[in-house]
Write a structure and sequence with these properties.
This protein has 25 helices and no strands. The longest helix has about 35 residues. The chain is globular and about 65 Å long. This is MFS general substrate transporter.
């Protein structure tokens, strides 16, 4: 491998583009050879991100900012659009319920609950497909997911019985399980640990936007299609489901598999995008190589093989289960309120049309709160303080709702509606921080994938409870459901503090035993 020192872009110095490209290509080739052969990793790292001065040896801060901005606008924004479409197709059944679905199909309260449960049952069973992001090119995997849920969601518009709708909801869970849970893992191919929460927040912020959009669209469809030849709930499923089929074709040619294959970046920008991730790739490769060596097995290229030792290591790590329990509790609220909110507001005394419109506003307010908490979390490189705050915000909203019945506080309906706002903002923001925290504290790529799969397998059991918390017999106050959700949000705060303590102790041990590796780079430390 070449030992030639890399060029540095100093301010006021001009480089010939051809010479710069040649140097960059040579360095990238050297680094890749080192990672593949298991040699020269230290040599590659010293040109990478080891310090602020070293970080920009091959690109300027201005170039990095430009690349990040383009990734945000072209990649993260598109992922947010896709996530919004997927969340729309899973949660619009709540709007369809009061738009005539329940009466036309003669559904009981229990049958409606089973329609929600069917989605999450298959969603949980197929969480393992998160690992397919590591094995199948992303543009193929994501495009097929979009196509599958778009077709299934559209077919809901022609169902004639409860049983057919139940089957379609189960199939919809499979299509979405292969997509959404793995998105943070996919974004980790393009963004560093301290950049991930905000980007995860950007695409998850599409969930409250989807809820708000679904409610607004349901209001329009219900208002203008009543008495028409097609039932409003059928139009709702079709109008919100079919666009995904069209987007799938575009996604195939647009979605990059890695920074090096992003067509919306220039040749130079692709190099910068790859170079800025080199240090994290080396850390992942070293961890997996170490695990593989202990098992006397080789390691393949990134995104092409799974490290079984790393999967086992993740599955026996207690920290993984602490995070998964947080996700479980938060998901009880996250999964239930969006699909029951139109009904809850309807039971406050509003008409179905007005209830559709009022359902939009709590999620709309959650959008900026989610982004602000994620941005501050990334900026401070800390997760737990913001997670505790957002979970307690949700706890406050649910506690007010739980105490609103005539036998306790006898709160008026307008105050109950106001309490929905902090509850919604709390669980949407907390979900973002939990997912980011889980990814941040896995050193290897396989560990991230396995950790995310475990997080979702355990955490997505929360909806099995959440979707059964609001039976009609508990209307209009739904005290039991609100109390359970308040308790779950409080549990998230307690678990976050516990995990912070565990990680802090382990960080102190790591600093004492091995504060620096052979290249002068700090040992992998957990984000608190």
């Amino acid at each position: 491998m070449s030992n030639k020192p890399p060029l540095r872009r100093e301010e006021g110095t001009e480089f010939e583009e051809e010479d710069q490209d040649k140097e960059d290509a040579e360095l990238l080739e050297d680094q890749e050879e080192g990672l593949e052969d298991g040699e020269g990793v230290g040599s590659a790292r010293c040109r990478g991100r080891g310090s602020v001065g070293e970080r920009f040896t091959l690109y300027s801060p201005e170039e990095e900012r430009k690349v990040l901005k383009r990734l945000d606008w072209r990649l993260v924004a598109f992922m947010a659009l896709l996530y919004m479409m997927s969340f729309l197709d899973r949660s619009n059944i709540g709007n369809a319920r009061i738009a005539g679905l329940e009466s036309d199909l003669q559904l009981t309260s229990s049958q409606y609950d089973w329609l929600l449960t069917a989605f999450y049952a298959t969603y949980i069973m197929f969480e393992w497909m998160v690992l397919l992001y590591r094995l199948i090119p992303a543009h193929i995997h994501i495009s097929l997911c979009i196509l599958s849920w778009g077709v299934i969601a559209s077919l809901q518009s022609v169902v004639t019985s409860y049983r057919i709708l139940l089957v379609l909801r189960a199939l919809l869970g499979i299509g979405e399980a292969a997509f959404g849970p793995g998105l943070p893992f996919y974004l980790s191919f393009f963004f560093r640990r301290d950049e991930l929460a905000y980007r995860t927040g950007l695409f998850i912020s599409a969930a409250p936007l989807a809820t708000s959009f679904a409610s607004s669209l349901a209001w329009l469809i219900t208002k203008f299609s009543e008495g028409g030849p097609i039932a409003p709930w059928r139009l709702l499923f079709l109008v919100e489901g079919f666009p995904s089929v069209l987007v799938a074709a575009f996604a195939w040619g647009y979605i990059p598999d890695s920074p090096e294959t992003a067509r919306f970046l220039t040749k130079r920008e692709r190099k910068v995008a790859a170079l800025r991730m080199q240090d994290e790739r080396e850390t992942e490769a070293e961890v997996e190589a170490e695990a593989a060596m202990s098992e006397k097995m080789g390691i393949g290229r990134r995104q092409s093989r799974l490290s079984l030792p790393e999967i086992r290591r993740t599955l026996v790590d207690p920290k993984s289960y602490l995070t998964a329990l947080m996700f479980f509790n938060c998901n009880v609220a996250f999964s239930s309120l969006p699909v029951f909110l139109p009904t809850i507001i309807n039971d406050m005394g509003h008409s179905p049309v007005t209830s559709q419109l009022l359902s939009a506003f709590p999620s709309l307010l959650a959008f900026p709160i989610l982004l602000i908490s994620a941005h501050l979390s990334d900026r401070s490189a800390s997760r737990s303080p913001y997670l505790v705050f957002t979970s307690l915000l949700g706890f406050l909203g649910y506690t007010i709702l739980a105490l609103s019945s005539p036998s306790v506080l006898a709160l008026p309906s307008w105050l109950r509606y106001v309490a929905i706002f902090p509850a919604t903002a709390g669980f949407f923001s907390s979900i973002t921080l939990i997912i980011s925290w889980n990814l941040n504290n896995q050193a290897s790529a396989t560990g991230k994938g396995a950790g995310l799969a475990l997080l979702n397998i355990v955490g997505q059991c929360g909806p099995l409870l959440g979707t059964r918390l609001y039976p009609k017999k508990d209307a209009p106050y739904y005290t039991t459901g609100m109390t359970v959700c308040a308790s779950c949000m409080a549990a998230v705060a307690i678990l976050a503090l516990g995990l912070r303590l565990v990680l802090r102790i382990q960080n102190e041990k790591r600093k004492k035993t091995s504060p620096y590796d052979g290249d002068g780079k700090a040992e992998f430390l957990y984000i608190l």
